[in-house]
Amino acid sequence: MSLHSSLKTKSGALNQHRNVLTRAERIVKLQDKDAFVDGESSPLGIPKVRSIKMQAGKKKPTKAPEAADDKKKKK
Questions:
Q1: In this structure, are residues 32 and 49 in contact, taking their beta carbons and an 8 Å threshold?
Q2: pTM value > 0.85
Q3: Of the candidates 36, 38, 61, 40, the residue with the CA atom closest to the CA atom of residue 48
Q4: What residues does each domain of the chain span?
Q5: Which of the four pLDDT bands, split at 50, 70 and 90, describes residue 46?
Q6: Using CA atoms, how far apart are residues 44 and 23, in angstroms rounded to an integer?
Q7: CA-to-CA separations, 47 to 10, 27, 36, 39, 55, in angstroms, rounded
Q8: 8-22, pLDDT tens digit by residue?
Q9: Do residues 30 and 36 touch, judged by C-beta distance below 8 A?
Q10: Other CB atoms within 10 Å distance of the CB of residue 33
């Protein structure tokens, strides 16, 4: 049997940004901020934690302006 196209996963599907974190991931983020103390704080009812997607900056073209100047000089 073949797999329906809607059920196929993409190659990077597991590495995509997720809006919802697991409890363990939220606890780790709260421990980094010293908002959760292991052994003292309850893992139930922990506050929400923002999950911010980082975007890569655009690269500036370095050789494009120089190449255009070289073409003008040759003419």
A1: no
A2: no
A3: 36
A4: 18-52
A5: confident
A6: 9
A7: 32, 9, 10, 17, 25
A8: 777 666 667 777 888
A9: yes
A10: 8
